[in-house]
Design goal:
Helices cover 38% and strands 15% of the residues.
């Protein structure tokens, strides 16, 4: 358990659609408290499963579980090493677009009626603003992870790039997957609900509300850019090592991941 203080609190413009999660930074480590359910467990499971994928280790943030004492309350959650080096900062696509054009990127995307035209617009705008190449492939990786793990919080405030003091840009490692795997047990996905019916209720937020449609559009335009190679045994063993969360929560996470493995079998090597 780590003791955290008021001076460690960090607020950003990367807000969740469900409110502001408590976050701290201390000695180069970021801490996030569970807010609506078992977000820390989700960050841990997804990032450790991504270790068994075609992603390079610097393409995603690895999370570990942690308990945090802040004031008189103990929170469950996750921690990760900061990936920012001196002179670099995270800037969301929403903020970046607003800085360039003085309007909302989200609204600009959704003014386009055809879903299949929204993604090229998004990719072209980001490449135009940043000079980054192959942003479509990067988004395909995000859309694949979001579809597989049901991350319903990937809006334009929650996709980011890195920017330095010279105005140069770089890709941001994939992070903030805590809204996946039906983690919100307080509002939307109660533990008493049927997990398979609840899975059907989870919605995407980037270019439309369908995970599969987003993924299909991105694959048609930019190809398949990530493969998984974990097994059901890997999932089970990963969860067996967790003591901070209940067996009921762990069982639900395992059922969701295994169901998605069957659905998206083509994503496995």
């Amino acid at each position: 358990m780590v003791q955290l203080f008021e001076q460690d609190i960090r607020t950003t413009d990367r807000q969740s659609s469900k409110g502001n999660q408590l976050k701290w930074e201390n000695n180069g480590i970021w801490y996030k408290a569970d807010y609506t359910g078992y977000e820390g467990l989700v960050e841990y499971v997804i990032s450790h499963l991504l270790q068994k994928s075609s992603l390079a280790t610097d393409e995603f943030v690895l999370y570990d579980l942690e308990q945090m004492r802040y004031k008189e309350t103990v929170y469950k959650g996750a921690k990760s090493k900061s990936f920012l080096t001196d002179g670099w900062q995270i800037i969301t696509l929403e903020r970046l677009f607003h800085n360039f054009f003085g309007e909302s990127l989200y609204k600009a995307i959704y003014r386009i009626p055809e879903h299949e035209k929204r993604l090229p617009f998004l990719v072209n705008q980001v490449e135009r603003m940043t000079g980054l190449q192959n942003f479509g492939a990067y988004l395909n990786k995000l859309f694949t992870i979001d579809a597989f793990f049901l991350n319903e919080d990937r809006h334009t405030h929650n996709i980011a790039v890195l920017m330095n003091e010279k105005g140069e840009f770089a890709y941001c490692p994939i992070f903030d997957n805590g809204a996946g795997l039906l983690a919100d047990t307080t509002m939307d996905y109660p533990m008493s609900g049927d997990v398979y019916l609840l899975m059907k209720e989870s919605k995407a937020k980037t270019i439309c509300d369908s995970f599969d449609e987003q993924l299909d559009i991105s694959e048609a335009l930019y190809g398949e850019n990530i493969k998984f190679n974990f097994t059901q045994k890997d999932v089970r063993e990963l969860l067996e090592n967790v003591t901070e969360y209940t067996q009921v929560e762990k069982n639900r996470v395992e059922r969701i991941v295994c169901a998605q493995m069957n659905k998206y079998g083509y994503l496995f090597k």
